[in-house]
Amino acid sequence: MKIIQLKNYTPTQMTGFIVVTDDRRIVVVDGGNVADTAGFLARLKKTAAQYGCEYRIDLWLLTHPHDDHYGVFRRVSQLERMGNTDLPTVDCFAYFPLPDRFGAKEHPVLGWQLPELNAELAVTRFPLLALEKGQHFIFGSLDIEVLRVSNQNITVNTFNNASCVLRFTEKRPGAADFRWIVLGDLGVEGGGELLSLYPGQLKADAVQMAHHGQNGVDRPVYEAIAPRFAFWTTPDWLWTNTIDPANPGKGPWQTLVVREWLEALGTAPIRASAADLEFDTLTETVTALE
Asked: Which of 36, 151, 270, 275 has a Cα at 20 to 30 A from 8?
């Protein structure tokens, strides 16, 4: 499979992946902010043409209700309802439903995002599916398993800890299976739950770094996964922990600490900064896309 990590088109962090399977199906994970929509659609169209896929999204997976993850979906859904004809077909949008009242447990600045998402879900014309723990989606040699869904009893770092966790397992000819774990924005508490659910079972070749690589799951989760590759959905300012260009490395985030954890594990970082990146799981190589 090809894992395309999308760059952010604004200064704001975002998470978006386009996955092309060996049977030419397209799976999307999250997507990004509303302002990333044009870039997302352009990359999707180029990818479909390059690999002989239909201009369609066979499965669109949402990890959790923060707008730097669902913004592109919301905008594409709005455009489709407005009659825009230059859009991909969406066969299934899969998410874990959360009630509006759950937003009251989120930070006051962000609590509005769940009602905004739910309002679009109520009117979208895309087929919807509720994610369930243990669910599998099969595309050719790829098996996508839902390892975890939102635990509404965790009320610390609420929306981040509501992240669904996904495991992509690809059977590769003549080689061991390739596994990629998607953590969304999972926090320390959700990470602890994940470890308790799957003791000794999380080893994978690649990981999507939780919460853009800072203030997400704790070190034991990454040690349990022990990935050879890490997808950092991390813009330059967050990667270098720099809020003031005159004081590099002096920002309030934990990125540099987490980078040290992954370096100690011998994990190679993959980070789309200047361009979208494509990771080929058969050759295990990264290509910057035009």
From this structure: 151
The model's pTM: 0.97
Question: Is residue 9 a contact partner of residue 38, using CB atoms and an 8 Å limit?
Answer: yes
Distance CA 33, CA 15 (A): 8
Q: What are the φ/ψ torsions at residue 103 (nearest 5 degrees)?
A: -65, -25
Instruction: Report the CATH number at residue 177.
Output: 3.60.15.10
Which tens digit of pLDDT belongs to each residue from 24-68?
999 999 999 999 999 999 999 999 999 999 999 999 999 999 999
What is the token pair recorded at 3?
């894992």
* Count of structural domains, the chain: 1
Burial class (CB in 10 A: 0-12, 13-18, 19+), 27: buried
How many CA atoms does the CB half-sphere of 147 hold within 13 Å?
Answer: 25
Question: What are φ and ψ of residue 270, in 5° steps?
Answer: -125, 120
- Residue 145 domain boundaries: 2-288
